[in-house]
Amino acid sequence: QVQLVESGGGLVQPGGSLRLSCVASGISSNARFNTMAWYRQAPGKQRELVATITGGDSTNYAESVKGRFIISRDNAENTVYLQINSLKPEDSAIYYCNVAVQGAPRFNWGQGTQVTVSS
């Protein structure tokens, strides 16, 4: 059974930074070939794709976070990270990770990690 556990969120002032982590367990030994993704969902809004990283470490970002967010992965630890910088109030959301298949989530969601940007 695949389990996704996100962590690292918190309350941060505008302009601040956080590093989110997601540990994926129960995924096959070929997981290093999977495209991993971070999504986020703000109150009253649909969940949106924020960033992806392929098995070959190619990355892609939503326009709203490009230049501020950095996705990375550690295949040995089955962990994907999201470094989020220059945070804005509109970045406030619950952040989730998942294996992505053409951008769509592959597995059930984890509990996510809350990011709140406020002064």
Topology:
Layout: E1 3-7, E2 10-12, E3 18-25, E4 36-41, E5 48-53, E6 59-61, E7 69-74, E8 79-84, E9 93-101, E10 104-105, E11 113-117
Parallel strand pairs: 2-11
Antiparallel strand pairs: 1-3, 3-8, 4-5, 4-9, 5-6, 7-8, 9-10, 9-11
Beta content = over 45%
* C-alpha termini separation: 40 Å
What is the makeup of the main sheet?
Answer: 7 strands, mixed
Mean pLDDT value = 94
Unreliable parts:
none
**Helix vs. strand class:** mainly beta
> Compute the gyration radius: what is it?
13 Å
Q: What is the helix/strand order?
A: EEEEEEEEEEE
Number of helices: 0
Counting DSSP E segments of at least 2 residues, the number of strands comes to: 11
Shape summary: globular
Percent helix range: under 10%
Label this structure with key terms.
single chain; 119 residues; mainly beta; 4-stranded antiparallel beta sheet; 0% helix
Explain how this protein is built.
- The protein has 119 residues and is mainly β.
- It is globular and about 45 Å long.
- It is built from no helices and eleven strands.
- Strands 2, 4, 5, 6, 9, 10 and 11 form a seven-stranded mixed β-sheet that branches. Strands 1-3-8-7 form a four-stranded antiparallel β-sheet, with no helix packed on it.
- The protein starts with a strand and ends with a strand.
Concise account of the structure shown:
By secondary structure, the protein is an all-beta fold.
